[in-house]
Automatic annotation (TrEMBL):
Its EC number is 2.3.1.61. Its cofactor is (R)-lipoate. It comes from Sagittula marina. This is Dihydrolipoyllysine-residue succinyltransferase component of 2-oxoglutarate dehydrogenase complex. Residues 250-276 have a biased composition (Low complexity).
Length: 511
């Protein structure tokens, strides 16, 4: 058996995504024949077969993220596998053990924790889709793992029977650790009921799902649909090839709950439930690793920093007029919509130059001033709040900022952000206005010393040049670490942001 591993990807490139497999398990391959294609941030890498033989199994499936030298697949060399080997094995099993089941004579196969991503060393076993003794097909999902940022599905490395589960649900496992053991690689395919069939995926349930033939939703999505009682027809799949994801199921459930429901008058006055009855109606769910991380970091921020918040309000008339005037030309030229976030990012970058302590951090007894702005942009996802970082935002144009925000936001919603993309921020903007928030006090994102909270734009009567006029107003909130930022600096920063937004020409003139 020869291992196929990820080749060197180039300087400063440590991971890649498996884009396409050109071969499937059981296919014959020649030396240097292309097995799969990997994609990195810079190039596409083809992986050839190191030997002639048969592709035994695929360890890293399409869409998986793999590191340098990670195991991709195994190839059985010519003469070591295939029809020539099958008959002697069967004869040996018959002569030594009598009439043997097809699974006998097969070696056990370990199910390992896959590569979890850069700087992610452990995960929690969320759900087992199979139990000990179940027969499984190759690449059928065995379990789901949760890390601080994404969910990882673990497929069966081969067909057979799940003989032992080593990591139960809720347990913490490390990258490269052993999850389970499989045996009897022929057992799952020996039964007539498991024989391949052209209509294998064309049952009514699968056929109505939307994905094409031979495409199934992930077990996590199927489990979520079963638990929520949602039909596949009601779920719009946004995954690869139209597959449904857990977030798609959550969206379908939310849509169903928001639909008006018929109400019926009660026959008698409602009776207050007892505490015991309340307990029966409660649901206890273990916090995800991402939610645990968010909770821990927010509490650490409260414990470590002296957080204060100062408020102001900004008249959005000029920004909205400028945006409405140029948004069509902007999108036509740059291929991205002109939003409000680029204006706020630019305004904050200008203000941070004048009040650098808001862009600094405390390291022991030192203050570290940053001569650059790595802007964190808080984004809500189905799994929780994450803060991807736009590096050197102070040197970007409006179009570059909008493109970066759009790309980071999409990766955040898809759960594809790496830890490196959420580290190193020097200041953060959080837009609670998209959810309808009128005013709030954002909490710091350590070790940063400042965070700007944006809110809902609301028409209000304002006195302008001695006259009462209706203006689109937004409350702004700056939370800051009072250990390093004085009240004067915080107020000055917020006033500079207000001035830049109420007269956007100041941004162009660097005033």
């Amino acid at each position: 058996m020869t291992e196929v591993r990820v080749p060197t990807l180039g300087e400063s490139v440590s991971e890649a995504t498996v884009a396409t497999w050109f071969k499937k398990p059981g296919d014959s391959v020649a030396v240097d024949e292309m097995l799969c294609e990997l994609e990195t941030d810079k190039v596409t890498v083809e992986v050839p077969s190191p030997v002639a033989g048969t592709l035994s199994d695929i360890v890293a499936n399409e869409g998986d993220t793999v590191g340098v030298d990670a195991l991709l697949a195994n190839v059985s060399e010519e003469g070591n596998a295939g029809p020539e080997e099958t008959k002697p094995r069967e004869e040996k099993a018959t002569s030594e053990d009598g009439p043997a089941s097809p699974s006998k004579g097969s070696e056990s196969v370990d199910v390992m924790v896959p590569t979890l991503g850069e700087s992610v060393s452990e995960a929690t076993v969320s759900t087992w889709f199979k139990k000990v003794g179940d027969s499984v097909e190759q690449d059928e999902m065995l379990c789901e793992l949760e890390t601080d940022k994404v969910s990882v599905e673990v497929p069966a490395p081969t067909s057979g029977t799940l003989t032992e589960i080593l990591a139960e649900e809720g347990s913490t496992v490390e990258a490269g650790g052993k999850l389970a053991v499989m045996g009897g690689s022929g057992g799952a395919s020996a039964s007539p009921s498991k024989a391949p069939d052209d209509n294998q995926y064309s049952t009514p349930d699968a056929g109505n799902a939307g994905p094409g033939k031979d495409i199934k939703d992930g077990p996590a999505a199927e489990k979520a649909m079963a638990e929520a009682g949602v039909k596949r027809d009601d779920v719009k799949g946004t995954g690869k090839d139209g597959r449904a994801t857990k977030s798609d199921v959550a969206a379908a459930v939310a849509a169903a709950n928001s639909a008006p429901k018929a109400s019926s008058a009660p026959a008698s006055a409602p009776r207050a439930p007892s505490p015991a009855e309340d307990a029966d109606r409660e649901e206890r769910v273990k916090m995800t690793r991402l939610r645990q991380t968010i909770a821990r970091r927010l509490k650490d921020a409260q414990n470590a920093a002296a957080i204060l918040t100062t408020y102001n309000e900004v008249d959005m008339t000029e920004v909205m007029a400028l945006r409405n005037q140029y948004k069509d030309q902007f999108e036509k030229k740059h291929g991205v919509r002109l939003g409000f976030m680029s204006f706020f990012t630019k305004a904050c970058c200008h203000a941070l130059k004048e009040v650098p302590e808001v862009n600094a951090e405390i390291d022991g007894t030192d203050i570290v001033y940053k001569n650059f702005v790595h802007m964190g942009v808080a984004a809500g996802t189905p799994q929780g709040l994450v803060v991807p970082v736009i590096r050197d935002a102070d040197s970007m144009s409006f179009a570059e900022i909008e493109k970066a925000i759009g790309e980071k936001g999409k990766r955040a919603r898809d759960g594809k952000l790496s830890m490196a993309e959420m580290q190193g921020g020097t200041f953060t903007i959080s837009n609670g206005g998209v959810y309808g928030s009128l005013m709030s006090s954002p909490i710091l994102n350590p070790p940063q010393s400042g965070i700007l909270g944006m809110h809902k734009i609301q028409d209000r009567p304002m006195v302008v040049n001695g006259e009462i006029k209706i203006r689109p107003m937004m409350y702004l909130a700056l939370s800051y670490d009072h250990r390093i930022v004085d009240g004067k600096g915080a107020v000055t920063f917020l006033v500079r942001v207000k001035e830049a937004l109420e007269d956007p020409r100041r941004l162009l003139m660097d005033l």
